[in-house]
Write a structure and sequence with these properties.
The chain contains 2 helices and 8 strands. By secondary structure, the protein is α+β, with helices and mostly antiparallel strands. The strands form 2 sheets. It has a 5-stranded antiparallel β-sheet, with no helix packed on it. A 3-stranded antiparallel β-sheet has the order 6-8-7.
Length: 199
Amino acid sequence: MSPGDRIQVGAIRGDVIDISVLRTTLMECGVWVEADLFTGRIVRIPNSSIFKEPVINYSADFPFLWDEITVPVKHGDDHQLARRILDDVINEIVGDYVGHAKKAWKDAVKKYFIDASLIDSAVTMVFTDNWIEFKVRYIVDYKKRRSIKDRIFSRILEEFAKTQGRVSIASGTFQLVDPPVFQVQVSSSSPPGQKAPRP
């Protein structure tokens, strides 16, 4: 562990900004802020806690993370076109990371007893009751996960819009099947308090 590393000790996550004899200082991430954005709080952790809590290092040896997004597509849409669009968008945005990640992973495999893993992006498909669900898995720099996800979703929406309805995002819809028949009777009597007109 060294300054600049992103770590998590127990429930505390942040970037290491200082290491002293007695404690490690972090710029905190997460908590009430989504993803890995800074909260602005500086957290000092006693070095003794490193021996009591699991220490997760996001950047040592392999400074990349696998991330995943879910894209729901309507049943009946062109699923082959949807897959091609997702493949193209992912390669366009994170393709540059793959070469660097493969090299870093190869070095990690030499150092640790871990298997070679698939670094390339992957798009897989499953059916649900409501839509066709695509899972998009890709590698990303550990500090750019949120911004990359934003770019990916933006490009997907742009490309889906160009298909002129052949591919569209699905959303939760509900269909009322065999609704009950309501019988309504209208009374000809006068409202309460009024006399009925004479014939």
